[in-house]
Amino acid sequence: MDEVSLAAAVSRLLNVPCLSLRGLETGFSGASTYIAEFTDWDVIVKVNADVAALARTGRNLEILSDLGVPVPRLLAYDDSGSLLPGAIVIMERFAGRDLSAVIDTMSPAQLTRLAQQIVDIQRTVATLPAPAGCGFVGIGESATRTWTDVVWHPNGYDYANPLPRDAAHLVPLLEQRLAAAAQYFERVVPTAFLDDATTKNVMVHDGELVGIVDLDWICYGDPLFHIGLTAAGVTADAELPVSRHYIDELIRLSGLTDDQRRIVALYEGLFLTNFLVAEWPDKPGPWRRRAVDGAERALRLADG
What we know:
By secondary structure, the chain is α+β, with helices and mostly antiparallel strands. It is built from eleven helices and eleven strands.
């Protein structure tokens, strides 16, 4: 992206001179994300050559905001092509940091309060009409995958070849547990949930929830998937055992049965295994030992 042209487009859409741009990342949706800085405030800017993708983002934000979910305000949107090729979305930037960056500093009471807020938000999102199928799509769009397919292929990463030696033993264990849960997956009724409001995209400031970001899509399927992914993030990234209190509270406040708790453990084991052998097979660091130990523990719990 030509950042000079992008800064000019942001200035024109907001009618305020943009002083600087700082690139963040390019997401799975293909959108490039920036922080645009002004004299005494800043905003989030997303640009994408795929106009439909950013239109989906804008629509998701508007629908979720109407439901009372704390999402960024949509400040400007343009897909005319007169300012930039493709589309541009400008959103409010929340104060605070991802939960993963602060969870080890939060008290049990703060983690309980946050867990209750996330559970309440997910229950609200679950009221959205659901399509016949499952998968990761925009709100109101058709979803055509089975939940079994989503679980067996939770992301676009292939297993490393060869498998990392420290985690190779997890793959057959995981596949056995997934096969044993086949009937459960077949019975899942598609339900809307925010799949990526985990230890990332949940913005926290001074121990309090500020809002939820990165809403290019949502998921239709089993909402327990979200708790399992969040648990995997806490297990791999949080250095203090007290952080596990957040997962315990998500489970307790969701009112899960023993069978549902085992499914959450299976999802945690699924994501931890994928972290280790697919997403980051070569990533070093102490997180690997935590992830391997956590995956072994989760898959044991999933086995009952």
